[in-house]
Write a structure and sequence with these properties.
Number of domains: 1
Number of helices: 8
Largest sheet: 8 strands, mixed
Radius of gyration: 20 Å
Distance between the termini: 56 Å
Order of helices and strands: HHHHEEHEEHEHEEHEEE
Shape: globular
Structural class: alpha+beta
Strand content: 15-25%
Length: about 280
């Protein structure tokens, strides 16, 4: 076998070892079902077929989808794009274990928070207008009201909602784990004023205790999105049934993420990434 063949085989061997390290690391912190590289390659193949059948897909975005062995970035400048399942997995595999350790060591209580501000909603077809920076800046201003520094690790997500009247829209969310603040303090500073609430059954802010920290971090940085359809349950209350996106909606979502560098949806306060190392800071809000 020539030198090129030896180099390719060695590269595959290094890649498989790297994947085994990720699997063992995620299992150790409580995420035994973390997606595999093989699963991500299959999902990339499915996405590629969808986009190739969509005439308006720019070729430059299609070229961002990896279908071969993973490239492990040497630094934080070359992570790929968030719409690529492999790049997204690589970024999350780097961030989640470090965040799990840093948050565990941080003093104070831990909570899982979801914020769905009505101002972050967008009509179907306009997801590319999502303003992630505005959402994180809103959160930063609210966190400045807390009396003590906090540590936050999470991400921005867009999910599709369908209301009882058939109205469909993209809902922007922030999902994150926060350490160092009490629940009542968080309820006070994160409260969304009534004038912004457009729907009767909306719950714009939820604050929950932490069970499995790694799973909450995985959820906060996930790449999968669902279609939440409103209905009235037997108890007379509005509930939501989660279903996969319709093909046209999935294409819109895929194209949006393919336009974002991996990690661009991350929400980090009180810490930052430097050369793929998560480090606490004094107070970055």
């Amino acid at each position: 076998m020539n030198s090129n063949g030896n180099n390719f085989r060695q590269g595959r061997l290094i890649n498989y070892r790297h994947q085994d390290v990720i699997r063992r690391q995620m299992t150790a912190i409580g995420l035994p079902d973390f997606e595999t590289a093989a699963q991500c390659i299959r999902r990339n193949q499915q996405m590629l077929r969808r986009l190739q059948n969509h005439d308006a897909t720019p070729l430059e975005l299609i070229s961002r989808i990896q279908l071969g062995p993973l490239h492990v970035a040497d630094d934080d400048r070359d992570r790929g794009y968030d719409g690529d399942w492999l790049a997204s997995r690589s970024y999350r595999a780097m961030l989640i274990p470090q965040a799990n350790g840093v948050l565990t060591d941080h003093p104070g209580p831990l909570f899982f928070v979801t914020i769905a501000h009505p101002k972050w909603e967008l009509p179907v077809g306009q997801l590319e207008d999502a303003n992630i920076d505005a959402a994180t800046q809103w959160l930063g201003r609210r966190l400045q009201r807390l009396p003590s520094p906090v540590l936050v690790v999470g991400g921005y997500e867009a999910s599709l909602r369908v209301e009882l009247d058939g109205d469909a829209y993209w809902a922007g969310h922030l999902h994150f784990v926060i350490a160092g603040a009490g629940k009542e303090e968080l309820k006070t500073v994160l409260k969304i004023e009534k004038r912004y609430r457009k729907r009767k059954h909306s719950k714009p802010v939820t604050i929950k205790p932490i069970g499995n920290l790694a799973k909450r971090l995985g959820y906060s940085t996930k790449r999968i999105v669902k279609r939440g359809i409103a209905y009235i349950g037997r108890n007379g209350r509005q509930q939501r049934r989660e279903l996969p996106l319709l093909t046209k909606q999935q294409i819109e979502f895929d194209l949006w993420l393919l336009g974002l560098p991996a990690g661009h949806r991350s929400v980090l306060f009180g810490c930052r990434l430097h050369s793929d190392k998560l480090r606490e800071t004094k107070r970055e809000v």
